[in-house]
Amino acid sequence: xxxxxxxxxxxxxxxxxxxxxxxxxxxxxxxxxxxxxxxxxxxxxxxxxxxxxxxxxxxxxxxxxxxxxxxxxxxxxxxxxxxxxxxxxxxxxxxxxxxxxxxxxxxxxxxxxxxxxxxxxxxxxxxxxxxxxxxxxxxxxxxxxxxxxxxxxxxxxxxxxxxxxxxxxxxxxxxxxxxxxxxxxxxxxxxxxxxxxxxxxxxxxxxxxxxxxxxxxxxxxxxxxxxxxxxxxxxxxxxxxxxxxxxxxxxxxxxxxxxxxxxxxxxxxxxxxxxxxxxxxxxxxxxxxxxxxxxxxxxxxxxxxxxxxxxxxxxxxxxxxxxxxxxxxxxxxxxxxxxxxxxxxxxxxxxxxxxxxxxxxxxxxxxxxxxxxxxxxxxxxxxxxxxxxxxxxxxxxxxxxxxxxxxxxxxxxxxxxxxxxxxxxxxxxxxxxxxxxxxxxxxxxxxxxxxxxxxxxxxxxxxxxxxxxxxxxxxxxxxxxxxxxxxxxxxxxxxxxxxxxxxxxxxxxxxxxxxxxxxxxxxxxxxxxxxxxxxxxxxxxxxxxxxxxxxxxxxxxxxxxxxxxxxxxxxxxxxxxxxxxxxxxxxxxxxxxxxxxxxxxxxxxxxxxxxxxxxxxxxxxxxxxxxxxxxxxxxxxxxxxxxxxxxxxxxxxxxxxxxxxxxxxxxxxxxxxxxxxxxxxxxxxxxxxxxxxxxxxxxxxxxxxxxxxxxxxxxxxxxxxxxxxxxxxxxxxxxxxxxxxxxxxxxxxxxxxxxxxxxxxxxxx
Length: 765
Known about the structure:
- The chain has about 775 residues and is an alpha+beta fold.
- About 35% of the residues lie in helices and about 15% in strands.
- The protein is elongated, with a radius of gyration of 37 Å.
- About 45% of the residues are buried.
């Protein structure tokens, strides 16, 4: 008896110890569990979207690609598909499904791999929102306890709301709404039964069943879900069988950030992040409305790419991308065949005097001589350019006979930028910062500063008009040499043509971009006064405090120069560039509207118009002649720097001001003759022809204080009957020159006067 008593006592002690251990373990599990009540305040990260002013989707910005959806708006067949795949007894259990756990274990054992999960939807919600993804018995136990508590505190509809918005379904898609967009390009409310079954098969292993990478696995998983729906009575067996054979019907949905307007979108992303913070931007579900005009942005990207390709072709062909053994074509035999509009690498298989033939995707395509003629050196034949085994870049198109045909091309190394804004508001309508965002995310329209060359001259001439000069003021174009302690050697500026033109009106000097005259004008005005004036116009970049300022030696961004040029068509009003119209924050119920900058008068309307009139002549008669062709009045100015390192054209209509820059990132020369008028102006024209399409012609409004006169270009005075070369120009009221008395000053005498001397200026005015 004593032995039995001792054994019994020992067992009681062991039981007490075991109970204490269990209690202690449960205490450890339960004391620091998250509060399930917090789930009622479910505010997960939601993607933000960026739109153009006309409603085009520009970009999606997110940490997690998620869109909240009300479970009540999800069709019943979508709910049933997920329940069939993940938790068919969801409406019957209280958070844990013990029979389901046994069924899943048996199915997995039978298949030799995981085909079913034992966790209920409630457990998945607990794990996703309240716990970590740690794999341990402790985490599973805590998950079970939390699932029971969730069921006691939330309704089934509330649990499904959390699940359908939180579940990860691959490709950065969180929740069924985002997944519907990613895989099918439609909202969840429009999902078919087959599409719903495909999505419902993903939660278990999104990467394993990725329909884009593993379509057969995805089909098999969809078949399983459809069969489970039929087994649960949510789908007829014959329908499940029929839907099993349907194509997946995927509609790949890429983030438009990289295709629609990447440079514009990236600049907006930076601006909003500065205003609202990174977390709010990427998680706050913002709706960001920009100033961008989608049609103009597309036109800008197209014009810049085409223009840079034209410049690049003039530099010549750089040769094949690589050479391989034509007898071993390798990847050029397999893969997708080329389609019209494709730009892809192809293998040259044959060459003769009529052209070549290229292989891609197992398809041989003709590359006619006329489609590679641009790359041929003078008097050369195609066999001297290409050989079998050359790998070249081709664009594919449909010929007149309906056959696919190839065009030899190459990706430009030259870069460029384009900005277009409304001068009346400063709203940026288009902004392109380079040839290809994929190869370089550096925004040359905003982040880069380059020397504008002669594009700075209108600003200097505006200063001259404000200080007594007129379009008819004569300045003597003769060789000059400047010596200064600040210079390492004497400076002898020259014109682009290397010629000198004698007495020249200010208007003609601008029209033909005469360097020496601009330097003389700047010297007469004084560098400090001119720098101050340019800063008044809106230039914020550091400016050279010497005479090189006249030739555009100070570096500016495209955006900055376009902003300043907007002063002329706006009647002297400066508007700071604006990229954002408003930022809507649905979660906060607020709208953030960046205050538009009111126009600040920086130039008299009359002076602004006189400059507009002079710059119209640049396009009609001068260095900007390649920008002719718009069906409404336009004005502008070319810019070219030393050794043709930078080429510019800035021009405007009454409603739009656009600037184009072309150059190499490392600053080496664009090549002989690649001036602003040749390299940049055609890009400006191509873009502006699209930008002004459908806009009624609008003339530049003539303000008070302006009058017109016909001037003798040789004398700078009112034109007489015998004047050989004349022009009509706008003048500030009261500054029109008088008629020249025949005996007063002869043209010969005029050409001996140098108006850079104050006494000479007085004689000529």
